[in-house]
Design goal:
The complex is a heterodimer. Chain A is mostly beta strands. Classes of the chains: A mainly beta, B mainly alpha.
């Protein structure tokens, strides 16, 4: 059987001779547009198969149904409507081995892979309106941990195979050959043709110094030879906020306050809001009534309200998504143009992201296909409402229900005496709703590929990836309760970041008998530049965004700016060798130089090697009916990480700082009012900012990967298992330092090591229940264990532990260190006989005396959680029946202890006495309510119950129905309108969550106040012309 | 032809390699190398950078030292939104839960050493430059040593045993300098030698009001010697008072009092208003500024959390005067302070301040419901401006604050503060140091006029303390001590009079706790205070001062770890 090694064969659609009653056409693979040979084509009267160029000719009449079938591909049918030449596309079913996979500067057949590479089934996430391909992929790839909030802009955190470093853990993205560290939320999901994740170091090491966190390769769509089409898809969704926390209403808050005060033996009427009619008997209190004041403020602008703040900030909102793409292709070249528009009004009022994308990918063929020239270009424009989401979510949690949204005269309600100084979250929304951030990004490259002799190709590509941000914000003056600021301020800022990337590769393919060899050599240079500046003024006569330009401000004129740069120079080579389709060897080496590192270690070398054995090709398995594929893999590789900031490490540097914003951190400035003038320009000096370290070098990750790929029953059941051991050493850390050194004493060292081990399993089963009903079930499960194996002793105290006898060494970097809670003190005996604990008492939290010394103090802490899940999983089930398709995707995290920071608000009246509390406090422990595990209400936290302890640890395991999609192919219904294909679908996201009963907040995926994750229902249509 | 293409390609590669070293040579952006800073102009700027540290404080680490000197002294509570708000301060306030991991203890340590490092860096450059191109050389040396002395003094009273590093120690051996390399006595001598150098070198007057004068150095030297005179053993117990040092204190204070030109301000309140800053009483002050080209001004962030909850301010109501302090301002029928028994009844309601007599300094120091805030009759402090009166009572601090319409006021959302100077040493301090030294050397009669001078000024400081209708805010009555008329002036009585006078004169200015430790009375005084005050302030129920431990902060655990055990922990931690 003849093999093709990722050869781009060209096909000549018009060449086949048309005969009467003969239907002709070409069959291509859907993903890469390559012709498919050997496809069985059936008509009612005949059977044939396609030739090397994917062409066929078969006797058929108008109205006949042709069936196309091929091992590993989904069977396709076509109803003959004319005698014109046909273009048929076939899609791979999962588990197919002939799939061509982009693995870094080149592509390989899946069968020949020796590393751990996951292929994303882009079809699975089609029409999921998350605004970001990575968000839609959550849970779908074993070993790739994606977390996200519900914000409209679609930001995600992606971790591949655990936590590899104490620094930046983001993977490297390579989009059409352009490496970038920006995520995929700025790329139109519909433009993505394929995605691959290079998980092990051997696969990723071709990207050398930036590959330690894994590499995600994205290839965008191109036009296909012989295909001319227009695709339109549109969807409209509603998003719902259904994960609101239960907070006290006005009356409940009054009741909780009363109970807390009486428990303390203090007069409950000694507060500025609630007055109580009660029997004044502390041992047997009887509350006859709660009296609210007529007004809650002295100025009499606010009457007592009963505000549910989460209801006030949330709304059901609209999400729209539109895409049109045009593609054409011939043997002279192809072109692809797509325009996308994404409009997401989030579930927090006024939040809004609008994103427009344009993509143009073209290529040209010359000299009988020996020269191939082309470009990829992506333009993204994004407009984002700049709301202080964290503050809005937090104030909705803590603002008191008695505070009205508006005052009687239509102003902003706000905190009244006796409350904490938290803003009205509705004011935060509307006083910022005029502020937008604008973002633009240009990514693209031009390339030329020359075939020097058959098999030897030279390719050069020059790319750029530039993005710019422009923000103009108006901070309005306001009065809101006792909070007020009569000043206003306009701030304008601009930032631009850019990469220029030039790479050159030479590849040689050679096949002789049973030997197949492929060699790659390349060079790459990357130049990065960042510049930013801002200006701000105050004293605006109008608080209108159309007026709020810098020129219109009259006072406090400020500006500032900064910049950074770095460069990378790299050389790399790779060789893949296959003997007799059975024995696979691959060797890679990359040498990188970076301006970020010290003169003594500016270059790093990253080698890797991998081997594979296709056992199923051996004679003893060749004819097995059971085993259709079996491959054993082993790889070892080294990768680096340089994502640690622009240190200019060799230099000891000083800076003229003048003054910095001292709001939350001390002024670092060097200016001083030495003359006592009190204002005006001040004399200023310089301060040291860093100590040089010429020996600084890369972080290095060394990884071994053991893998097996298998397929049973002619690939009906397929899967893979990977086990990895990943050691990162020389982790760059900038430790705290002996304070006597003074400012600028920080030096960066290669001072830490970490180890991750893990297993990833992927299983897929495809079946056909009847001629019309087919299904596919794909599941994955993954787990990792993380531990810190070495750290400079100087930095140990910066991590959980006591820094001396209990350190993070040997523990997960996500560990939580704190006290162990044994429950509450429920009897006076218990209180008397327990270890000395300042503040102990009935109904108080009882901490465990871990060292048994009879005193509860700092020495009674231990590691109470490793912060990581036991395992994560995903399960995708899809069914097809006639024109209908149904897909359900479940995603889950199991065995994670989440530190629920909300609990300091929902469970205590003492930790934040001036805020609102959760309804849970109504069920607090009392002598009459002894079953409760919620501490007794008090207003004074004498027992320091906010300390880190197991009280706040909760089982954060969950399973979510991430997506449920029902689609229907309209088939021939619209043929008359020139529509080749039409599909309508209903789609739901995050429709339900199964979580532990013991989890007390609303969404275990979002234990602190990030943007809430919405449930989404969509209606959409896909049309092909 | 094929070969030719190969050659082209190889050349391309070679070109890449040749260019790459240069490509990777990225210059740092927006910074300067150390060697560029040794010109006369830049050396003088390095001196300014050291001064800048005086005001580079964090909202939690005030260079006035109130979180340590006042909040731990029985004069003030933490305040804020209950004990959980800034709980590190709560740990300071109740002592028992204060541990070596308290982040603010570490932050303050670093803040003070940042200043010392800037002074040392400037000194190295000043020492190295030739006086012919830098004529201000010796004076700048003295200024830097004065600043360094100031920061070491603060470290000394906060932490006791600290590593002493001057400009002659190379950075590479900083990690060998232990906090116990010098004895307590040795550290005082190092601090005093810096001030002595400044006394010998600095001019009597400075054009730049921010620079210390010869007399500022004398005052600081006197202060150091006064602290130094009370000798302590290794467990912080006061074992004796060095009479020779007290004699030096008296001489130095005399020189300041008689020759410097500094004097008491006419009105006590002049020391706490921006419009009268750098007045006659201000011997050395932190010069804050605003509208100066920085984002929010170089303002007094150390007092940014003290403002009450109303529309003019709105945050954060911390550093709250204790009930005990308010009551201590009561005067007896004759107009003298009550050494004991002043808190048998408590004064909280407006009527209480009219039915009893008070020292007018009360209304300069404490904001009281019904009393004008910061001398503004139209801006009356309200009970509902208090954030958590159920825990911390109704009062608020005034000395560090300014009125919202004051020119020096600056919002820095969500906080606020002012460009009003903060006086580190004022003239009345010098008077009372001298009085203290006289009393402890048996010359208590000579101390009487000094204390009376301070009291007389207090009695005269009522002009600003009026309600809108012109009536006095409280019922003021202060008289001087008149032996044989209203008191019997013995050494013991004089000591009590001095110590009470210091409390009233410097209340909330960050001195009180250090006074108590110097006198050796911290444990008895504070534990008695906790016993009485916790009756009305339950958050103090668990509070306890442990003798032999709580006189000083622990050496921050971080620093001990960074020193790899070179630093030794203070007793008890």
């Amino acid at each position: 059987m003849k093999k093709y090694l990722f050869i781009v064969l060209l096909f000549f659609a018009g060449q086949a001779l048309a005969q009467q009653h003969q239907v002709t056409g070409t069959v291509t693979g859907k993903d890469l547009g390559t012709p498919l040979a050997g496809v069985t084509v059936k008509s009612p009267s005949a059977t044939t198969s396609t030739d090397d160029k994917g062409q066929f000719s078969i006797a058929a009449s108008i109205g006949d149904v042709l069936t196309f079938s091929f091992v590993g591909m989904e069977t396709t049918t076509y109803k003959v409507s004319s005698t014109k030449s046909l273009s048929i596309e076939m899609a791979f079913t999962s588990g197919n081995l002939n799939e061509v996979i982009v693995t870094g500067y080149q592509a390989q057949k899946k069968a020949d892979l020796t590393g751990a590479v996951s292929v994303v089934n882009v079809n699975d996430i089609k029409d999921i309106p998350e605004g970001s391909a990575t968000r839609a992929l959550q849970g779908r790839i074993p070993g790739v941990y994606i977390s996200s909030d519900g914000s409209p802009e679609g930001g995600t955190t992606v971790r591949i195979r655990g936590i590899g470093t104490l620094n930046n853990n983001d993977p490297l993205y390579v989009i059409d050959g352009i490496p970038t560290t920006r995520g995929l939320e700025e790329i139109n999901q519909e433009d993505i043709e394929s995605m691959q994740v290079l998980k092990d170091a051997a696969s990723a090491s071709i990207y050398g110094s930036r590959a330690a966190n894994g590499v995600i390769i994205v290839t965008t769509k191109k036009g296909k030879n012989g295909i001319s089409r227009i695709d339109v898809n549109a969807s409209s969704s509603l998003q719902y906020y259904n994960s609101k926390l239960h907070m006290l209403n006005t009356e409940q808050h009054g009741l909780a306050y009363f109970r807390a005060a009486v428990n303390d033996g203090s007069d409950p009427n000694n507060n500025q809001i609630y007055q109580y009619n009660w029997n004044k008997d502390y041992s047997n209190p009887v509350l006859n009534g709660i009296l609210l004041p007529e007004y809650i403020d002295a100025a009499k602008t606010m009457k007592p309200a009963n505000t549910n703040w989460f209801d006030q900030i949330g709304e059901t909102s609209l999400l729209q998504n539109y895409n049109v793409s045009f593609s054409n292709g011939s043997d002279k070249g192809t072109s692809f143009l797509s325009v996308g528009y994404y409009d997401n009004k989030g579930i927090v009022k006024q939040s809004h992201t609008q994103k427009a994308t344009v993509r143009l990918n073209t290529d040209f063929n010359y000299f009988g296909n020996r020269l191939h020239v082309g470009e990829n270009l992506n333009l993204t424009a994004l407009k984002d409402k700049l709301l202080p989401i964290d503050q809005i979510m937090f104030t909705a949690l803590v603002q008191n229900p008695i505070v009205p949204v508006y005052t009687l005269d239509g102003g902003w309600g706000g905190p009244a005496p006796g409350m904490t100084d938290r803003q009205n979250p509705v004011r935060l929304i509307y006083d910022n709703s005029q502020n937008n951030g604008y973002f633009g990004r240009v990514t693209g490259n031009v390339f030329a590929e020359l075939t020097i002799i058959p098999g030897l190709k030279f390719k050069t590509s020059y790319g750029l990836d530039y993005d710019g941000t422009f923000d103009r914000t108006l901070r309005k003056s306001y009065t809101s309760g006792f909070l007020a600021d009569p000043s206003n301020l306009v701030n304008e800022s601009q930032n631009y970041d850019g990469n220029l990337i030039w790479n050159n590769t030479l590849t040689y393919d050679w096949t002789h008998g049973k030997h197949s060899l492929n060699i790659l050599a390349g060079q790459e240079s990357i130049n990065y530049l960042n510049q930013n500046f801002f200006g701000s003024r105050q004293g605006y006569a109008l608080e209108n965004i159309d007026y709020a330009y810098l020129d219109a401000g009259s006072s406090n004129i400020l500006n500032g700016g900064n910049g950074a740069s770095y460069a990378l120079q790299s050389f790399f080579g790779k060789a893949n060798y296959v003997y007799n389709d059975r024995y696979l060897v691959s060797v890679t080496i990359r040498r990188d130089g970076s301006s970020r590192f010290g003169q003594n270690n500016q270059f790093g070398t990253f080698p890797s090697a991998s081997v594979g054995w296709r056992v199923s090709k051996e004679d003893f398995l060749k004819d097995s009916k059971l085993i259709s594929d079996l491959k054993l893999r082993y790889s070892y590789g080294e990768t680096g990480n340089q994502a640690i900031g622009n240190y200019y490490a060799t230099y000891t540097l000083y800076k003229a700082i003048y003054g910095t914003d001292p709001t939350f951190t001390a002024d670092q400035g060097t200016a001083y009012d030495i003359s006592g003038a009190g204002s005006g320009t001040l004399p200023s000096g310089f301060v040291k900012t860093q100590d040089g370290n010429a020996n600084l070098k890369w972080e290095t990750t060394k990884e071994s990967n053991f893998g097996v790929d298998f397929g049973l029953f002619n690939q009906k059941l397929s899967g893979s298992v990977d086990y990895f051991i990943r050691n990162t050493s020389g982790i760059l850390i900038t430790p705290g330092y002996l304070a006597v050194i003074g400012e600028g004493g920080m030096r960066t060292f290669n001072g830490g090591s970490m180890r991750n081990t893990g297993i990833e399993v992927l299983l897929s089963y495809s079946g056909q229940l009847s001629n019309q009903l087919s299904f596919n079930i794909t599941g994955n499960i993954a787990t990792f264990r993380n531990k810190v194996t070495y750290l400079l002793s100087d930095v140990l105290t910066a991590y959980p532990g006591n820094g001396t006898t209990q350190t993070i060494l040997g523990h997960s970097i996500n560990s939580v260190y704190g006290y162990v809670v044994q429950g509450l003190f429920t009897s006076q005996d218990e209180v008397t006989n327990s270890a000395a604990q300042p503040g102990k008492g009935l109904g108080r939290i009882r901490y465990k005396d871990l060292n048994g010394d009879g005193v509860i103090n700092a020495d009674d802490q231990t590691y109470i959680s490793n912060g990581n899940p036991d395992f994560t999983y995903g399960l995708n089930i899809s069914l097809k029946y006639k024109g209908f398709s149904l897909a359900a995707f479940f995603q889950g995290v199991q065995g994670i202890q989440v530190y629920n920071t909300y609990k300091t608000y929902t469970d205590f009246s003492s930790l934040w006495p001036g805020t609102n509390w959760g309804t849970r406090v109504l069920n607090a422990w009392s002598p009459q309510n002894t079953k409760s595990n919620i501490p007794a209400l008090t207003l004074v936290d004498a027992n320091n119950e906010g300390r880190t302890s197991t009280y706040y640890l909760e089982n954060g395991s969950y399973m979510k129905l991430r997506n449920l999609q029902l689609g229907y192919e309209l088939g021939d219904l619209l043929k008359g309108a020139g529509i080749k294909k039409a599909r309508v679908y209903l789609q739901g996201s995050n429709l339900f969550t199964v979580k532990s009963k013991s989890y007390t907040a609303s969404d275990p995926e979002n234990p602190s106040g990030a943007y809430p994750i919405p449930s989404i229902t969509s209606l959409g249509i896909d049309l092909t012309f | 032809m094929i070969m030719k293409k190969y050659i082209v390609f190889i050349l391309l590669f070679a070109g890449g390699i040749a260019s790459c070293k240069k490509e990777l040579d990225k210059q740092p952006q927006g910074v300067i190398a150390s060697s560029e800073l040794n010109t006369p102009t830049n050396v003088d700027k390095m001196v300014i950078a050291a001064y800048s540290s005086l005001g580079n404080e964090n909202l939690h680490t005030s260079n006035s030292l109130w979180p340590w000197g006042s909040m731990r002294s029985g004069d003030a509570y933490k305040g804020g939104d209950g004990p959980g708000d800034n709980s590190e301060w709560n740990d300071y306030e109740v002592f028992v839960t204060n541990q070596n991991t308290n982040g603010l203890t570490d932050q303050m340590w670093a803040q003070l050493y940042n200043g010392i490092a800037r002074a040392n860096n400037a000194l190295q450059r000043v020492n190295a430059i030739d006086a012919s191109v830098y004529p201000q050389k010796t004076q700048r040396q003295a200024e830097m040593r004065f600043l360094r002395g100031n920061w070491y003094f603060m470290l000394k009273i906060l932490y006791n045993r600290v590593p002493y590093i001057d400009e002659n120690i190379p950075t590479t051996s900083y990690d060998t300098v232990s906090n116990v390399s010098y004895t307590s006595d040795g550290l005082w001598k190092k601090i005093e030698s810096d001030f002595q150098f400044a006394v010998n070198t600095l001019p009597a007057k400075q054009t730049d009001v921010g620079r210390p004068t010869k007399y500022a150095a004398m005052a600081y030297l006197a202060k150091s010697l006064l602290y130094h005179a009370y000798t302590q053993d290794d467990n912080h117990a006061v074992t004796g008072i060095d009479q020779a040092k007290l004699a030096q204190v008296i001489t130095l204070c005399d020189s300041v009092i008689n020759n410097s030109g500094y004097a008491l301000a006419t009105d006590f309140g002049d020391n706490f208003l921006a419009e009268t800053e750098n007045g006659p009483e201000s011997i050395f002050a932190i010069q804050y500024s605003k509208d100066d080209g920085t984002p929010h001004g170089r303002i007094d962030m150390g007092h940014s959390l003290i403002y009450p909850m109303n529309q003019a301010f709105g945050c954060c109501w911390q550093h709250i005067p204790s009930q005990d302090l308010v009551d201590a301002f009561k005067t007896d029928a004759s107009g003298l302070p009550m050494f004991t028994g002043y808190n048998n009844t408590i004064a909280t309601q407006p009527a209480d301040f009219l039915s009893q007599t008070f020292d007018p300094r009360l209304d300069h120091t404490v904001a009281i419901p019904g009393h004008p805030y910061k001398y503004e009759p139209n801006f009356v402090y309200q009970y509902n401006w208090a954030r958590d009166p159920a825990t911390y009572g109704p009062f608020s601090e005034l000395k560090g604050a300014v009125a919202a319409d004051d020119a020096s006021f600056q919002k820095i959302p969500p906080f606020m503060s002012s460009s009003k100077n903060w006086e580190l040493i004022r003239f009345s301090d010098v008077l009372l140091w001298k009085a203290e030294a006289l009393i402890e050397t048996g010359q208590y009669l000579a101390a009487l006029p000094l204390i009376n001078q301070v009291r007389q000024r207090a009695a005269n400081s009522t002009a600003r303390l009026k309600q809108l209708n012109g009536s006095f805010t409280s019922n003021y009555k202060v008289v001087t001590y008149q032996p044989g008329v209203n008191c019997t002036w013995t050494q013991d009585y004089a000591r009590q009079a001095l110590r009470t006078e210091r409390r009233l004169e410097f209340a909330l200015e960050g001195n009180r706790f250090f006074d108590l430790v110097r006198w050796g009375t911290a444990d008895t005084y504070l534990n008695a205070y906790f016993a009485s005050e916790s009756v009305i302030r339950p958050h103090l129920k668990n509070a306890h001062f442990t003798k032999g431990r709580d006189e000083y902060l622990p050496i921050p655990l971080n620093q001990i770890n960074y020193s790899k055990g070179v630093y030794k922990q203070n007793p008890g931690f």
